[in-house]
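Bug: token stream looks shifted between consecutive jobs. Job 1:
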Amino acid sequence: MGSQFSVIRNGRLVDGRQFNGARFDILIEKDTIVEVVPPDSQAPENSTVIDAAGTLILPGLINAHTHGDVSLAKGLGDRWSLELLLNASPLTSEDFLLQDKSLAARLAAVEMVLYGCTACYDLFSDFPTPSLESLEAVGKAYTEVGMRVVIAPLMADRTFWQAVPGMIDALPRNLKQKIEKIVTQPGDIAINAMRDAIVNWPYAQDPVYLGLAPTIPYHCDAAFFRSCRELADEFGVRIHSHIAESKLQAIAGQQLFGCSLTEYLDKLGIISSDFTAAHCVWLDTADIQRLADRGACVAHNPTSNLRLGTGVAKTREMLNAGINIGIGTDASTCSDALNMFEAMRMAAYVSRIHQPD
């Protein structure tokens, strides 16, 4: 019978804290790291030896924000704005069959693992509303690849055209009539579907968890957002939303609510320590402090921000305020790859646009 122990030898260990590239051996029992020891230390008899010579060994990376459903549509649009992407990219996956959703998630997971990423926050699109069957297919794909994941399906009860102030009224009559026929399902349908999925979720021990992703504040009615908060509080799941990603979003928020999107969500009681705000490009100092005071996290997506021309987030100011920032690749439609090393490098570069560090 084979040994339950494995030892990784000759690798150079880097964790950004204690280990900075020196050689160490790593002793593993089953699937748990037991000890980090000097090179060539004695290991239990019959241990499986893995020779890691010429490699760096580092902790698994965490992708704070991505969209696995569009992994089949990499680099979809050149010189697109965010708003064009929001309207075009659903066409790539809205007619997916169950096996298509599974394949898209599996490809996303495999790509991330190949780049050293072992966990992610996936805001998966499931049209027209989330279903347990679809989410199980996505969860199974991540489980079989071996990734940890929070799957938070995007949800909204307003279309893009309904959400942006004055958009429908500005259209020619013939186009306006067509657009007015495009509607989303009522928010309570999505809420009930997510309740069913959470109650019957089979993968929580893997660990593959569910979350809630009311997509963009003005795409969701206030009552819908409050229902998301109630559901999150009831079951202890997290909430993730795109906040002030573009200038249009920031301006629309002011026009609709008379305040910033961050202040609006705070008034609704949405922002707390279980809330992740994605992008956060168009925040002022008060918005940043508000997120910090509530213990919220920010998912920083520098590559897609540059690709779509939405701007540069004030990450140094956020860090100084005490906000926990995670780095994300965003979707491969607008960042071209799910490569966390590229995302980290880009985050380091763009942070110096505002100030030297």
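Job 2, same session, no restart:
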Amino acid sequence: MKKETKRILIVEDQLIIGLDLRLMLESLGYQITGIVGSGEECIEAVRREKPDLVLMDIMLSGEIDGIFTAELINREFDVPIIYLTAHSDENSLVRANLTEPYGYIVKPIDEKYLYSAIEIALHRFKLDRELKKSEIKYRTLFEQSLDPIFICDDREIIIDANQAMIDLFGYPLDSLIGNRVEFLFEDREDYVSFMKEVRDKNSVNNFGTRLVCANRRAIDVQMTLKCWDQDRLHGGYQGIIRDITQYKLYFEELLFSRQELRNLTAHVESLREKERTDIAREIHDVLGQHLTALRLDLSWIRKKLKPDEAELAAKTTAMDGIINEIIMTVRRLSSSLRPGILDDLGLPAAIEWQTEEFRKRTGYECEVLCSEIGDLSEDKSVTLFRILQESLTNIIKHAGASSVAISLAKKTGQIEMVIRDNGRGLRNGDLRTRGSYGIIGMRERVKLFNGSLSIEGKEGAGTTITVLIPA
């Protein structure tokens, strides 16, 4: 099924920037409905063209700026807005946030980030629209709403509630009226925090808490409370409650599934490591022994040769060389699958060995500093060693470096491994590139031990990978 081409309106009062943005967007596969330079033109263009998304410059010239234009659009139309900004003062950002934009793009504009921001905004908008459709029954007027709605006076005493409120909590209306809102809260500290925010801001939106029903069952909700106009209810409040218990269950199921996936990853990695160890041992012990025996037999044959059998002697010498090469290859294969030094001498020695092998293979300058780290479990040692191997592989593939520095130390109950190179560093979006499965794998390995992995670097200034795992 062909993907629908999304239509975008550009609101930018600097024509050169607008035209450049147009070329960029068209190269990304979007259709441009127009470029306008003022808020008034923008509103008219949205009304006429009905774009799928608006890219709005915050600092528009003219009578209305981009933020006020966004407010007007939000009142009349249902279209996502992404702000374009070079620099804005704090007040402008506060105003901008109140319009609930779907993102910010900082000038000068990076094409990759532009694409990501637009796709995320469109996806979020699609989800929001679906959510709005499912929630529209909860956002009608008080008399018609299926959302629990209550009204309280300035003393926070409930003076009215709708049928949805009665149905949700199981209290008859006369049991709700006359009680302070506080009696619904499971945690009094939540209530104090909730009302403080209301008093400070005159409203609070989507406050997450737990309320107690008449049957003493606690439910997860989001509460919105707004002050009435002084002339209507003398400083009282209108509150809307949304039951999110099911959403919380979905979220918990998602977290559980994620943990299950992580556990499965750990199990798979454990099986892979065991398989590597078994294969390495089989290659080293069985194949290595057979080759050694073959070499001894060949040596015995050479000793039995007569002086006039020079041709056979030369042949056996050549065969001995081939057998020796096979033995060396077997050792390399065995070490690459599971270096025996890791099991025999521990992680610091294995790191020094791996780094020396890396130096021989690449010619890079290598510096290794391994401090005493004490006893470390086999799983953690293997994890750190595999991360080192993956990092060195990435340096060869992507860094364009000439030197590498590796350190291992124990700090405040944690094992820290740092890998630095002097290569080309990181560009924007490098870590978000699709197919960065090696980095994903490293992060997942570390998370299995409640550790952390950070990757830092600037373009042209090398890259630093820091791994922290509880000792």
